[in-house]
Amino acid sequence: MSILFQMFSAFFTIGLFAFGGGYAVLSFLQQEVERRGWMTTERFVDFIAISQSTPGPIAINMATFVGYEVAGVPGALAATLAVALPGIILIMIFALFVFHFYERPAVQAVFLGLRPAVVGLVAAAAWQIGKVAVVNWVAGGVSIVCILLIAKWKVSPVILVIGSAIAGILFF
Q: Where are its TM segments located (predicted)?
């Protein structure tokens, strides 16, 4: 099976079943990348940092970077299209049907059931990434400071990315 077909299939599946936005996709994506041996966990974490630092949704950015890493420009195009296509299809279906029925209790129950699962997926991705990214007490401190600044004071992620880059230059 060609690498482009493997990539399209993997990213289409990720895009189809990864509810909850970009960060929820990271857990699925990390498992797929590791299972297929496309890159090391350290490289994957580097791509997360780059994806977070570049404009656009993190899931699309990650798909593009992983696709490029594995199969060049054709891989980037295949992975990006594949991860985005399910969302486009689902949004069109939602626009046609779900919002018409949104106020119904059964639909509300589905959304209430999905919310904790999304939190779990994001927490699992954070745990897996944290095990690789937090390499010493400085990295741990930067992580904790970023969490506090965002959670308590709503500091812009742009400021945190710039500050973390400066901390990286100073301490690493």
A: 76-102, 109-127, 133-150, 155-171
**CB-based contacts of 4, cutoff 8 Å, min separation 6:** 71, 74, 75, 78
pLDDT tens track for 73-109: 999 999 999 999 998 998 898 888 877 888 899 989 9
Query: How far apart, in Å, do the first and last CA atoms of the chain sit?
Result: 42
Q: Give Cα separations from 2 to 31, 47, 67, 71, 95 (angstroms).
A: 20, 24, 13, 10, 35
Residue with tokens 């990390």: 30
**20 and 121 Cβ atoms separated by less than 8 Å:** yes
Average pLDDT over residues 137-148: 94
Q: What's the rounded Cα separation, in Å, for the pair 38 and 33?
A: 5
pTM above 0.90, yes or no: no
Most distant CA pair in the chain: distance in Å? 55
Q: pLDDT tens digits for 16-48?
A: 887 766 777 888 899 899 999 999 989 999 999
The two three-digit tokens of residue 36, written as one number: 């297929």
Residue whose entry in the numeric block shows the structure tokens 């079943």? 17
